[in-house]
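Pasting two entries for a bug report.
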Amino acid sequence: MSAPLLHGCVLGAGPTGALAALALADAGWHVSLRDPLPAEQLVERSRAYAFTHSSRELLQRLGLWDDLAAVLVPFRQLQLRDFGSGEGCQFETEDLGLPRATANAVGWIAQHRPLMEALLVRLEAHPAVRLQLGPDPAGESRVGPEPAADLVVAADGPASPSRTALAIGQWQLAYRQSCLTAQVQLRGGKDDEAWELLRPEGPFAVLPLGDGRVQVVWSAPASRCRQLERLPATAFLDHLAAVLPDRLQPDVLLDHPRSFPVALQLARRLHRGRTLLVGESAHRCHPVGGQGLNLCWRDVAVLHGLAGRVARGQLAPDRIGAAYSWRRWPDLLLTLLVTDLLVRLFSNRHPLVVPLRRLALAALARWAPLRRLLLTAMTFGPCRGRTASPQ
């Protein structure tokens, strides 16, 4: 007797929704991926993402790593600098504690367009995936789920219409900071080196894109971000040069700086009925440490394992929501707590806090086991064993 055909519907075709559709298909489900935006608009976004080894492991399980590796820029060093205390340390591949053949990078950077183009190519080629992107000529909605779906995966962003329709509330904390992103041609940097600069006005990341190009992720008070966004290119580069380490010199602004508000958000529940909240429909955190997309893709890793168990008859379809929530809550709560504490601790000029930061960073610089502990938590999440894909 053949197993019943399982049908999943994924709402939202951004990086997380696209990967969730491929994960369900890999687990043996038939999948519809729906988004009101056409493919050409889905790929149009000027931003970059940091990937850790937790995302690499998922991509390898899905057979996507070799395809996506071509659009990823590896970095083998991560420079951490606290401008308030004057201390810093350097993380290298040896601090991961992984086998040498695996630990060939601390992490990777990918730009949105090539990443989405590669994911869409795989989706279009997969026989178990049906893409429903853009306005439908027959007037069919691309927002709600299909009535016949056994599972609905809501990956429709922080303003999730699915979460609203399900009357799922959320906890929310708006930071006083905003975040500004821009791509810049840089002198003095290395193509395999990323930076996390902890400044009193907010964290500042420099992400390598190859050939001397970087994306800066600049956290600062909202008024300052708006001011920077309006500056002419030469004035913006002057302001940028003033906050970068001395050996990094910006030469050319490659796109128009864009700022956006930063908030901590967490849905009060991760499922209702047959619908799961995945990615930013369920949670958002401050971009410090590059945790955002990796946290979203750890959602997908758990979804992938549970969907496989359902397909093998080891888990009833109506139990997937409770199992998903039980596995995801610890990682989400701890990651959001850690990123929030980092922002509060390193954006704080209190005279008692700065010496503590100096001691902590000096210990990191001198003690390899402590670097390994911190980098492992930031790479795989604070609950690696509990959030690994259940097989």
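Entry 2 (this is the one that rendered wrong in the viewer):
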Amino acid sequence: MHETLKPLSITELTQRIRSAVEPSFSSVCVEGELSGFKTYTSGHSYFTLKDAGALLNAVLFSSARAKLPAELVLKDGLKIRAQGSITVYPERGQYQLVVRHLELAGAGDLMQQFEELKKRLQQEGLFAPEQKKPLPLLPQRVGIVTSPSGAVIHDIITVLGRRFPNLHIRLAPVKVQGEGASTSIANAIRFFNASTEWVPDVLIVGRGGGSIEDLWAFNEEPVVRAVAASRIPIISAVGHETDFTLCDFAADLRAPTPSAAAELVILPKTEFQARLQRLQEDLRQALSRRQEKNMQRLDDIDGHLRSALQQKGQQFRKRVEQASARLGVLRERQTRTLESRLGLHEQRLTQAAHRQIERSRARLETLKRQFELLNPLAVLDRGYSLTRTADGRLVRSVKDVSSDTPLLTQVKDGTIASRVTP
């Protein structure tokens, strides 16, 4: 006959288990693969740690999460080392690990190296904002430092080709992880900078996402110094948006992804074309306004010249009229004098008077002719003409024209168009 046991409530059993478990596992450290990682609006993160034989539920409260390094990005698939305590959750009858601290398994030393090298290089000024070089507005040559295989180079070339098909692109194939990767990357950057035949306007240095170990080559000092020393502007495109490397800090610009780096290199060609059209329209309007202004000035100058010529002509006419009046007075005086003094010699005086009158008339005619000669258009009435080129220059010599030059000849009653024959 089975021994009769006093039944326990589920709550009582769970409390006994809790009392037995929690004191024994108040401080544990476990390693496993992170899975099902999710952070809620409260700031608490829930996930499981697993290995080949078991799963362990875990929680990382927001207070503990705030103490982790900002560069530590948690995601499924990472192998982590977590320290904390085992607690029993009565409502679900489950136990879980309450994490107080965690780090990448086997990468704790790497994170320490990351922080130490970052601090040292930052103190040297390698990451200073004033050291950053601006990207060219319209690059023609783009150098790429990445692996020749994989999606990264394909994505970059595809994006660049879509945005601006005329770009010249060259790849420096390098190892992006493992032994010798940092040397390969640094040498490729220096190669582009030392080139004299094909010098890129901008460089993209990067690779796809991965763990901190996969990205570590871009945290090594030779790569960081090569990036900082580059005279060519560099866009760092290492990993995904949440991945940070020291290469990002040393570069002139960081892109969240390799595809984004290609978009940062240059604006779409259509946008440049639209800008050029706007500039052409602005220039056309400016030239039109300048032409209108110059035409107005020419009209003003023409008006001033016409007014000046009219005033000059009026002055000449007035002088002639005054001269004519004085001559009339003089003639009358001479006539009266001759009549009073030479009454007895009337015939002789009359003849002399006639001669004097003829001389006066001749003199008057001379003055009139002189006046007419001063009129620049009077020569046209005498059969002369004025010949100008199409742009208004007066032709004074055969040297002023050449074969097939169009001419305009002004005569008394109009203008004759002609052309110089060989």
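Dev reply: Rendering is fixed now. As a check, the viewer should reflect this: The first strand starts at residue 28 and ends at 39.
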